[in-house]
Structure to design on (277 residues):
């Protein structure tokens, strides 16, 4: 088809994401508007450079994962002299950050929290089952296909890796990093990236429940995090959450990655929650 860029949806160091319409898509009385896509324009990097490798990893991971219900669909890849364009599903509901911080859609809504978080778990599980570990899970990289949040998808695989063990520290977005990914308080030891993804899910769930992070950074120099490590009841004392939610978060926020809940058990625990609030 022939794509026309309509508006900028977001931009960063990688390039720009546009909303685009397919000017050649068929229309009808029931669907009068042309098909819409999100187009991620990646500024081309020097062959063999670190940024070039990240782009190759992102495209390879997204190709492998496309097709799962809870992964953003990659339809096509188009190249020109300056950019590589990833043609993606357009999600009219925006990202999860907007649903949490601007629309407050989860406040007091047990059913919506449960349904949405289960879909996020399923999307991450699909990645892990294919040997892909996201490394940058956060509300900004989780998308709502519609405004009612009926369908949730994981996107943005720019930092994804196929290596389960990593010695790359500080990879991702600081608020969502596990202690072992930060590395400062764990001696910069090689860590399990799958378990680190689960930690990020814990921060995401906290945001969904109370509209903020439990701490700024998961390191001892952060007072809130230090208090959490020292006091097993810290989260339920400081956040308006239920005992079930407190227990769930504590299983996701274990200091030892080996003790952290896995995705299969996490999914069942979420199903068993009576109320989060």
């Amino acid at each position: 088809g022939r794509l026309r860029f309509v508006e900028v949806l977001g931009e960063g160091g990688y390039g720009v994401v546009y909303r685009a319409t397919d000017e050649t898509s068929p229309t009808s009385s029931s669907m009068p508007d042309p098909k819409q896509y999100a187009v991620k324009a990646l500024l081309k990097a020097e062959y063999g450079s670190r940024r070039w490798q990240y782009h190759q990893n992102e495209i390879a991971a997204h190709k492998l994962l496309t097709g799962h219900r809870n992964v953003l669909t990659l339809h096509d890849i188009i190249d020109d002299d300056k950019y590589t364009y990833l043609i993606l599903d357009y999600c009219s509901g925006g990202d999860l950050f907007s649903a949490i911080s601007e629309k407050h859609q989860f406040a007091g809504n047990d059913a919506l929290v449960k349904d949405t978080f289960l879909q996020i778990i399923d999307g991450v599980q699909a990645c892990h089952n294919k040997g892909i570990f996201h490394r940058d899970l956060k509300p900004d990289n989780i998308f709502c296909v519609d405004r009612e949040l009926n369908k949730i998808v994981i996107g943005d695989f720019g930092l994804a890796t196929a290596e389960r063990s990593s010695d790359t520290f500080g990879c991702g977005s600081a608020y969502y990093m596990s202690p072992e990914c930060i590395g400062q308080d764990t001696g910069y030891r090689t860590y399990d990236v799958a378990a680190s993804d689960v930690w990020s899910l814990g921060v995401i769930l906290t945001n969904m429940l109370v509209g903020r992070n439990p701490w700024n950074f998961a390191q001892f120099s952060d007072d809130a995090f230090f208090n959490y490590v020292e006091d097993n009841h810290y989260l339920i004392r400081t956040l308006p959450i239920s005992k079930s939610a407190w227990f769930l978060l504590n299983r996701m926020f274990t200091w030892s990655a080996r003790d952290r809940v896995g995705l299969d058990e996490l999914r069942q625990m979420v199903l068993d929650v009576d109320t989060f609030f």
Observations:
- The first strand starts at residue 3 and ends at 12.
- The domain at 96-272 is CATH 1.10.510.10 (Transferase(Phosphotransferase); domain 1).
